[in-house]
């Protein structure tokens, strides 16, 4: 059976039957497009002609592109789901992805942005156009709430409660949580709602394009990267960096890991411990104040 047709069927299945998030569907689609392009170079268009060697050769190709272990693992995950679907539908007799090992992503912590740099960056964000007002609201919301990219993209108009300074978020596993919003984020959202009302929206999503449709994941990522460069931010700006910076800055101020866990929507506290860290100065200060062998003797 033709590979392109199988991919189309699979994407329809995970959307309508499994009801996966649009972010996951986009990620799987991207991975399968890469796989299909690779197979085209080797004149393979029939899924029954794909074996484990074909998949391993594709993984080797990804490694030669210097992708991270996490990115390669995401591509393999998409292939596994795809070929499991084909096997379950009896389109193929043997699952070629079975037994393919996934590289373990390193647990290195993502770098945060310094508090002063974030504050200066957000304060310098212009509000002189419809797009700028929208983008400022997006970035204030990311930093204020620490939500994920997929969570922000999925926010509907009725999820926002500005008067109560809170936001309803639908996270992984369709779990809903309420997160607080800071005054700066609320002010940016008020401005955006006024600007949004001047557009003939065709979507109930909070963040839309000029044509009224929902703003997509990659467009949000592109806008963050654009503003990071335009305003001279010393690091590359992306949603996870703002999420991690929000969590780290909150933890440094409060030392409340459980509160950060609730904010980020982590089911397991261990996940929060990987995402967040205390800088050495803060750690040293806490150590000096709390450890019995660190306290200076009175003379």
Description:
- The protein has 299 residues and is mainly α.
- It folds into 2 domains: 86 residues, Tyrosine recombinase, N-terminal domain (DNA polymerase, domain 1, Orthogonal Bundle); 171 residues, Intergrase catalytic core (hpI Integrase, Chain A, Orthogonal Bundle), CATH 1.10.443.
- The chain contains 13 helices and 3 strands, in the order H-H-H-H-H-H-H-E-E-E-H-H-H-H-H-H.
- The protein has a 3-stranded antiparallel beta sheet with strand order 1-2-3, with no helix packed on it.
- Strand 1 and strand 2 form a beta hairpin.
- Helix 2 crosses helix 4.
- The longest helix is centred in the first third of the chain and has 20 residues.
- The model has no long low-confidence stretch (mean pLDDT 85).
- And the CATH topology of the largest domain? hpI Integrase, Chain A
CATH architecture classification of the largest domain: Orthogonal Bundle
Going by CATH, what is the homologous superfamily of the largest domain? Answer: Intergrase catalytic core
Contiguous uncertain segments of 5+ residues: none
Instruction: Briefly note the structural class of the backbone.
Output: mainly alpha
Q: Approximately what portion of the residues adopt beta-strand conformation? A: under 5%
């Amino acid at each position: 059976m033709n590979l392109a047709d199988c991919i189309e069927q699979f994407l329809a299945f995970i959307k309508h039957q499994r009801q996966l998030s649009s972010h996951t569907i986009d990620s799987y689609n991207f991975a399968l497009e890469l796989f299909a392009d690779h197979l085209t170079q080797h004149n393979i268009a029939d899924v029954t002609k794909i074996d484990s060697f074909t998949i391993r050769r594709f993984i080797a190709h990804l490694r030669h592109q210097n992708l991270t272990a996490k990115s390669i693992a995401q591509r393999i995950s998409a292939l596994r789901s795809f070929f499991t679907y084909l096997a379950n539908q009896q389109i193929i007799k043997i699952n070629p992805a079975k037994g393919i090992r996934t590289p373990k992503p390193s647990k290195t912590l993502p770098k945060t942005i310094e508090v002063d740099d974030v504050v200066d960056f957000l304060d310098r964000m212009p509000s002189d156009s419809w797009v700028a007002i929208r983008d400022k609201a997006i970035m204030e919301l990311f930093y204020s709430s620490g939500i994920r990219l997929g969570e922000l993209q999925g926010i509907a108009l009725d999820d926002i409660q500005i008067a109560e300074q809170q936001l309803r978020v639908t996270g992984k596993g369709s779990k809903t949580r309420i997160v607080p919003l800071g005054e700066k984020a609320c002010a940016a959202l008020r401005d955006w709602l006024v600007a949004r009302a001047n557009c003939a929206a065709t979507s109930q999503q909070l963040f839309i394009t000029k044509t009224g449709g929902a703003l997509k994941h990659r467009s949000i990522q592109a806008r963050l990267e654009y503003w990071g460069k335009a305003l001279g931010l010393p690091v590359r700006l992306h949603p996870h960096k703002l999420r991690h910076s929000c969590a780290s800055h909150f933890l440094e101020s409060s030392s409340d890991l459980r509160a950060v866990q609730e904010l980020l929507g982590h089911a397991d506290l261990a996940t929060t411990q990987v995402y967040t860290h205390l800088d050495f100065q803060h750690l040293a200060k806490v150590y000096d104040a709390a450890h019995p062998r660190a306290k200076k003797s009175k003379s």
